[in-house]
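Quick entry, no commentary yet.
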Amino acid sequence: MNEADVRERLAGVEDPDLGDDIVSLGLVNDVAVETEADGAGGTVHVSLALGAPFSPHESAIAEDVRDALADTGFEVDLSASIPDELDADEQVLPGVKNVIAVASGKGGVGKSTMAVNVAAGLSELGARVGLFDADVYGPNVPRMVSAEERPQTDGETIVPPERFGVKLMSMDFLTGEDDPVIWRGPMVHKIITQLVEDVEWGELDYVVLDLPPGTGDTQLTILQTLPLTGAVIVTTPQEVALDDAVKGLRMFGKHDTNVLGIAENMAGFRCPDCGGFHEIFGSGGGKALAQEHELPFLGGVPLDPAVRTGGDEGEPVVLGEGETADAFRVIVENVANNAGVVRRRGVSEGR
């Protein structure tokens, strides 16, 4: 068993999203074979260019690699990394693998709810996650996860608190409980920059950004400052929300930011008394928007009182049971899968 033998076997492992085998796509970083002194077995070390930890599709690729080498008599040691073109001291968030923005064209569509549940859902999968509440106008993420602990600081660095395995930072931590704050462009830029540079995020697989609604200064600052893996656009089914969602799509398009897909909130209501399903805000709008712009549809979440209760009581619905929790889990897995597609495609096209 040598490197050529290993690569020949790995050429039979298909990428479920990119439509070719992982060797042809350039997703095998390195192969090293260690043989025991007596020649009977050893260890095969394989480094794969996988960039979205705990995404179901990348986990499946890793499992297929193990299966491809299972009958060789060698132990299989897998690692995953995507080489960064910048040195660590040049990177904005050197310990963070993926930055995912959650955005909406208008308020009231459940964007923060989506951000909280995506972050908590990724953590539940096993990923190391941070959640940055960058909504300067309505920073309510701390309430939605019942974060009573405040960040700690030594005057130079900020250590974020954790809830549900997620590291938290929020504009709410910077103001008093009921203090009205008027944020102007230069102030927003300064605060965002400080939170990026001074927070000790550590080694994370994902940082989820809850952006304010619309296409203003905060979004522009983040697009210019942070290396986004991609964005999730949140909408509700009705036409007014869809019109505003298109503005968000255009904003990310102008800044060459990948859109991971469209997520739809309030996608119908199932009456707990009669069992009937009512499309209060219309139906199919988010899916139609995704199809029109040739983007993935991440999934739809029904209008469920449990979502409101979970937000008010600080317990993300995705961590529970039932139809709505399952709907959020589908979105979480699709977000992770599509982040992986972006990262792997970048490796394949850049080789």
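second:
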Amino acid sequence: MKFPDEEQFGKAADAAVRTFSLKNNGWNAVLASILRIKGARVNRTEFLRQVFEQLPAGRTWMSAETMQELAAKRIRRHTIETSAASAAAGLPGGFALLATVPADVMQYLWHTVVLAQELCYLYGTADLFSEDGRLSDQGNGILTLAVCLMLGSRDTETENAFSALYRALKERALKNPSFLAVTARFWYPAAEKAAEWLGAKLAGTAARGGLSKFLPLIGAAVNGIASYATFSSAAVFLESSLRNAAKAAAEEQAHGGFSA
């Protein structure tokens, strides 16, 4: 995947600053801006084909062990790339900081959104985008909740809603309208709350600087090192949440839960 350049991140961030208030529906607009950056939308079919074509002969991709190995590879790749960009952002002449959403923060969020899609697809969710290319309500919800979890929220409601929405996005569950309706009443309020939390986090910290303010553990002098640890641990937590949700979905299926 070609790494998006500074100009793309800058334009996306600048557009976000001009067109919305971060304290209100800001996160949805930020997400829309991120998804307009090259490479931000993961094509589910192409991604899964490329990943599974690399499996050694005889390996069963549906096994829990294989899923974890594949997920770990994606996490390592994005961790290395975002850490390299963070290190560059901490140096003079690095990413230019914009008024409200600095380019290095947009870069960090870009990797978070892309990785969230990849992990969801690895663990069996249906396409997060509709046939006309629009992000579905469920897709918006699960990306919002995923980013919220990766940026430090450990609210039980958020974790439970993420798990429920994951189960709703399993392909078999999508054929059961009643299950979708029930889960929507549960996850939608949590996703709205998560979006508000993300908007407030962006408005309250990103306006005062880059990643060193957005992620307080990161200082300008050690951006790359701290970003590596921060992104890696956040990504591992998201993968663990997906793995647990997948296990819960399998148990539901086995005990006569939602059906195809």
